[in-house]
Specification:
mainly alpha, 6 helices, elongated
């Protein structure tokens, strides 16, 4: 091999290939009339495979996803262990969501029974002002308590 001539490239070598590449013409777009109709799956309704997986998981909770997939293949459902695992994971997520939503009490924060609201305090203040002071209000409330007993 002759080493007298050395070539030094100032531009990257891979750019030469892009200059020489032929440009392929684009295919014309298909119109609505040219498009082929897609046939629906004739064997089962939508969601039948998922429902079968859920039923099999509930009936066999100790079996692995691979065993469940084999069981469903025997019944005629084309499924994989990965798909069964995804359905099982989604079932667990729904259960966790239901448990978490049940833990949150309805109707806001829990207030103790002996807590006094601001509205009751305003009414008590008006009563104290009408009766002339705190001592008079206490005596009136004690008299009311004796009448109720």
């Amino acid at each position: 091999m002759d080493t007298r001539f050395r070539f030094t490239y100032t531009i990257p070598f891979n750019s030469f290939t892009t200059l020489a590449r032929r440009i392929m013409p684009r295919r014309p777009r298909t119109t609505e009339a040219d498009a082929k109709p897609v046939e629906a799956a004739p064997e089962a309704a939508r969601g039948a495979k998922t429902a079968a997986i859920r039923a099999a998981l509930k009936a066999n909770p100790t079996k692995t996803v691979k065993e469940i997939a084999e069981l469903l293949k025997e019944q005629g459902f084309e499924t994989t262990a990965n798909y069964v695992g995804g359905v099982k994971s989604a079932m667990k997520a729904k259960k966790r969501k239901k448990v978490a939503s049940a833990a949150v009490p309805e109707g806001g924060p829990v207030v103790p029974k002996d807590a006094v609201s601001v509205g009751l305090l305003v009414k008590a203040k008006k009563l104290v002002q009408e009766l002339g002071g705190v001592k008079e209000a206490k005596t009136a409330l004690n008299a009311l308590a004796q009448l109720l007993d």
